[in-house]
Design a protein that fits this description.
Elements lengths: L3 H7 L1 H8 L2 H9 L5 H10 L5 H12 L4 H8 L13 H10 L1 H4 L3 H18 L12 H11 L4 H25 L1
Helix pairs in contact: 3-4, 4-5, 5-11, 6-11, 9-10
Length: 176
Amino acid sequence: MPDDTAVQSADAGLARVNALAPEEFRAEFGRCLEVDRWVEGLHFRRPFGSRSELLDAADRIARTLTEDEVAAALARHPRIGEPAGGAETEAGWSRGEQSGFTAAEAGLRERFAAVQADYERRFDRIYLVCAANRSARELLDDLTARMGNDAATEERVVAGELRRIALQRVGKVLDS
């Protein structure tokens, strides 16, 4: 079994993450999921011996998010179909994640916007989904299906989608 030094030297992204100063680490991982407890939990576990160790830790901590933490993290996410704000890197990630939606025909985007508005009235939050590599049709189908959820089920679904987005973004941090 290779030692941690050999694994890290073979993975420049992991070595870079492990070597980040605390404030740089917090900034980079805050772009993945802006939940202080999640970021601090990852920071506390450094150094990571492998990507899978980092991703497993990120997943485990994200599975314990509270409703308040989910709500606060949602505030940083743009609606599907709206321009992303925030830090340049984070906005670029959002544009890329939503590229399947923005390429869709106008009529489909309009139908989506109408159902999305219904969702927001029903659940009093934005519709959050891990949109990467998904077409506008897939997103509309998901949104429509989720309209049938009760509030507790939807809370769990949103937390799961937030976790999926965070894990994809951790991969982007490692690959940057």
